[in-house]
Amino acid sequence: RPPRSTPLYSSAASDVYKRQEFSRAIPLYKKDADNNDAALRRLGDCYRILKNYPEAELAYEKLASKNPSDPMVYYYYGEALLNNNKYEAAKKQFVRYSELNPADKKGELYAKACDQMKDIIVKPALYKAYNLGDVNSQLSDFCPVFYKSGLVFASERVRDLVNYSENNFTGNPDLSLVYAKATKKSITVPTDSAKATEAKEKDTLIYSKASLLSDKFSGDGHYGPASFNADFSEIYFTKVDNSTSRKRPVNLPKLYYSKHQSGWSSPKEMPFATGEFITGHPSLSKDGTLLYFTSNMPGGQGGTDIWVSKREGENWAAPLNLGTEVNTAGDESFPYISPENILYFASNGQAGFGGLDLFASVNTEGKWSKVNNMMPPINSSSDDFGIIFKDDNSGYFSSNRTGGNGSDDLYGFALSGMITSISGKILLSQKTDDGAQNVKVFLITDKGTILQTTSTDGSGFFQFQNLLSDQNYTVRIDESDPSLINQKKFYLTDAKNKIVRTIVKGKEGIFVFENLPPDLSRLTALNEEDVTKNY
Whole-angstrom Cα distance, residue 16 to residue 154? Predict the structure, then answer.
């Protein structure tokens, strides 16, 4: 703690920071950061809030080198490293945070997540992701929703030429709701098989240059994200007013709605949007009866949570928190309820790849299931959020990952057609009912990396899923299993119990089935004398 006579940093920087004008605060804090730890901390916080993780990492690195007693320095340093794909270094900071603040399990959670990431990133992707290209601007574009024959999304591209409104949070124009119309395009499939697969996976729609949806949703503050009802006669959206006062120097996001007749009506506040807490990021169910949204209202789990309100005639019931299966002590935001009633949302409170990750949960008989991470390439070390589905296998989402046009861009995704699985049985003899039970089995790449681990069931059956179909694999049996000490030979069958490989213990005492295609039935049946000896 500095002496009382030492100024923390300029009062101008402090005032700007309190008004959440972080882009303006950065140059003010830079002046004092070399000589003042408090200013250095604020500088790192500004970069972190603005998602500039490379600069945030540098600031927190300098601060952490001075061994501060504040555990949050190490947590934020770890967060920046995680977002910059530095998993080992991030783990060290999360471990340090956990040591200083053992009551908060986030440090332990993220330290474990760093270990998991190293294994997960070598697995093949279920989806292919691609930038939507020209529909994106050089500024922020995010949270697409379907509207008529195109997409509506929030964008910073619209400059208010009357009031010249500017977002002091980032220094860019305020957000507006814009619309990009879609037209079908024809695809010429290349003769090269790899390029042909890529062409088929790309979107078959071309989006026009986005224009303002309505002047009702632009100017005098931020507008978006939004959600429409089934016939597009109602819109629900987030708005942040830009008018401030001494009593309220910062306005919180609030939910509004508007109805379309001859045009869009003047926006009205939702009944529970009092302005005393955050309400935003709406998603309306297909039947229009449930409105999911983000809020930090009292009664949540911490940070921002996902809530739901039920329509009751012309009114909306008091919101209900979705509970601990979905919400955490971190931030849950950007919900999307699919037509199949699967909830997708972004969170930084679940174990993920850094920043906001996308997760899914299913409601069964009133209870939400354990959440599932959407995995790369939909999730990345950056912020990934605002997902919607066109069908069961494709859709769009938002991300500020590297390689885009602006800070946040719209991306498309489609299920990869090259995903398959490998399964079979491991037998102790040629008898198909003599399975090697409860034996640990490793799937290994051609580079020697363990891709997945599983155990055989009571019949010796095993299965590895989500594999690339154009690669060969090696299956290795755990030779340290005490039950295998006297075992000299194993047999591998395909899913139809046809023996396709025989293996004997190698010189180093290991059992390895090499060069296996995902479809084991492609291998010819082997006789007893057909034995593969391994090193």
Answer: 26
Peptide bond just before 124 cis, omega within 30 deg: no
Output the pTM of the full model.
0.67
| Collapsed DSSP state (helix, strand, coil) of residue 149 | coil
Q: How far apart are CA 441 and CA 462, in angstroms?
A: 8
How many other β-carbons are positioned within 10 Å of the β-carbon of residue 233? 12
**Structural tokens at position 83:** 């977002």
Question: How many of the other CB atoms lie within 10 Å of CB of 302?
Answer: 13
**Alpha carbon of residue 71 to chain centroid:** 26
Q: Is the dihedral angle over the CA atoms 237, 243, 246, 250 positive or is it negative?
A: positive
pLDDT of residue 47: 93
What are the DSSP E strand ranges found in 34-103?
Answer: none
Q: How confident is the model at residue 168 (pLDDT cuts 50, 70, 90)?
A: low
SS3 of residue 437 by DSSP: coil
- Is the distance from CB of 154 to CB of 221 less than 8 angstroms? no
The residues with which 360 forms a beta bridge, in sequence order, are 344, 372
Q: In terms of DSSP bridges, do strands 254-259 and 268-269 run parallel, antiparallel, or are they unpaired?
A: antiparallel
- Render pLDDT for 186-207 as a digit per residue (tens, 0 to 9): 545 445 544 545 544 455 678 8
CA 103 to CA 337: how far, in whole Å? 34
Distance separating alpha carbons of residues 26 and 310, to the nearest angstrom: 43
